Amino acid sequence: MAYWLFKSEAEVWSWDQQVAKGETGEEWDGVRNYQARNNMRSMKLGERGFFYHSRKETEIVGIVEVCAEAHPDSKANDPRWECVDIKAVRPFKTPVTLAMCKEDARLKDMVLVNNSRLSVQPVTDEEWKIVCELGETDPS
DNA sequence: GCCAACGTTGGC
DNA sequence: GCCAACGTTGGC
Predict the structure, then answer these.
(1) How many whole angstroms separate alpha carbon A61 and alpha carbon A88?
(2) For A90-110, how does the pLDDT look when each residue is reduced to its tens digit (9 = 90+)?
(3) Where is the EVE domain (predicted)?
(4) Total structural domains in chain A?
(5) Residue A139 maps to a domain
């Protein structure tokens, strides 16, 4: 069971919009980066990920679940680009900011801390637990 | 709003 | 196949 992190600018696609999609979820479209796409190709149904607001808030605001495995991005005119569908699981009680992650020595190797430009990232089991703890949120 | 870091493109 | 030029992302 792998864990992930999805980044989005709140102005483009926010946590609230994700929640509004309910159980149906929504395509995580628009990824035009091979590394990020390859991460999505590795995702299995039911795997969990963090939902992160980039640029303005720079914080992890909720937990999502993969509800459809990788398929062609319906908004791309190019078959190279694929995406998964995700649905909101629960919001963080306390959002975990990037600054909090940077301050925590246990998270020094987290991709979020080291490679700010990758929009779909893997998260380790350990990092998952620590971030949930910082956010006072049920990790299950 | 600025700019560093990164990814991609395309000429050679 | 190299690398300069360009475009984009995202933290600050």
Answers:
(1) 11
(2) 999 999 999 999 999 999 999
(3) 2-134
(4) 1
(5) no
